[in-house]
TrEMBL record:
It comes from Allomyces macrogynus (strain ATCC 38327). This is Ubiquitin-like domain-containing protein. It comes from the Eukaryota. SUPFAM superfamilies: Ubiquitin-like. Residues 224-301 form the Ubiquitin-like domain. Residues 1-10, 205-217 have a biased composition (Low complexity).
Length: 309
């Protein structure tokens, strides 16, 4: 076919100079169609950093059943807890209504992030104190948990848990901000309680009747007056102690005179922390007229040694 022969000659004559350039490693076999060079792909934009003001969408609170959210934020009856807090006038509580409001939000975070066994979040001291009081009202606490998707367990902290608790508390604050913005500092970042101010020893000894009602005392210089409150019985026991008095010594004095089992006794400090037996009470920042909240099992078949305080 003449047309085809003529076209072939033209193709050969035109491509002969280019054949020299194809003798290198990039040569294309004769008769193969030319392959267009690939277009340069623009580099991917660098990933945004995850700190500072990076354009990272804030995580949202995981979905919570609307009925559960309304129950925790509005319908949960905390009136008995409010009455107890107002009666105690605890120095670590900046305001009863505010702390209860923040306690409700803390409970909602626990449910949203499925913190059933207290392994993710931690409560700041004022909320921790409210939580402990709520747990002591066993019927009310159980009734609340019956309305939740799971039971909110609580575990005791110890001196070995300080770093872990700090991480969990930071997580709580971060999750709070994603939902409601910055938390109130008076609740979520409260100032430390002031340590007791050293005082000269009293000029005269306490009256005999007073010393009989306060069994745990030291005879060294500084003295501190405080109360142990058993909330389940609305009972206060007052003590005057010295700088070396430990939690264990006060527990032993209570168990010796009143029908409470020393092994089951737990003390909660004004900052919401549970106290170990070897802790010296003056070393934790107690001031006069502070209240330690206590819980304990009563010994069966025994009456109080006196009418209480």
């Amino acid at each position: 076919m003449p047309g085809t022969t003529s076209s072939s000659r033209r193709t050969t004559s035109r491509k002969r100079p280019a054949a020299v350039a194809r003798n290198g490693p990039d040569a294309v076999p004769a008769g193969s169609p030319s392959i267009p060079a690939p277009r340069a792909t623009p580099p991917a934009p660098p990933s945004q950093p995850c700190n500072g003001n990076a354009a990272r969408p804030a995580p949202r609170l995981p979905p919570v059943d609307p009925a559960t959210a309304q129950f925790l934020e509005r319908d949960l009856d905390l009136s008995a807890l409010a009455s107890s807090l107002k009666h105690a006038r605890h120095p670590s509580i900046p305001g009863v209504d505010l702390v209860l409001h923040e306690y409700r939000r803390f409970l909602l975070l626990k449910v949203a992030y499925k913190d059933e066994f207290a392994t993710i979040l931690a409560a700041p001291p004022p909320i921790a104190l409210v939580w402990h009081l709520h747990i002591l009202d066993t019927q009310a606490y159980a009734a609340m948990n019956a309305r939740l998707p799971f039971f909110l367990h609580h575990k005791l902290s110890s001196t070995n848990d300080t770093a872990e608790r700090a991480r969990h508390l930071a997580t709580s604050r971060e999750y709070y901000r994603t939902r409601w913005g910055d938390p109130p500092k008076s609740v979520w970042d409260p100032p430390l309680l002031s340590p007791p101010t050293p005082r000269p020893p009293p000029a005269t000894a306490a009256p005999q009747s007073q010393s009989q009602s306060k069994p745990a005392q030291d005879t060294t210089g500084k003295k501190l007056r405080f109360r142990v409150r058993f909330l389940q019985e609305d009972k206060d026991i007052e003590f005057i102690i010295g700088p070396n008095t430990t939690v264990g010594k006060v527990k032993a004095a209570i168990a010796d005179r009143w029908p409470y089992d020393a092994a089951s006794m737990q003390f909660t400090a004004p900052n919401g922390e549970r106290l170990a037996d070897n802790v010296k009470l003056m070393a934790i920042g107690l001031v006069d007229d502070d209240v330690l909240l206590a819980e304990a099992t009563r010994r069966d078949g025994e009456d109080d040694g006196d009418d209480g305080q």
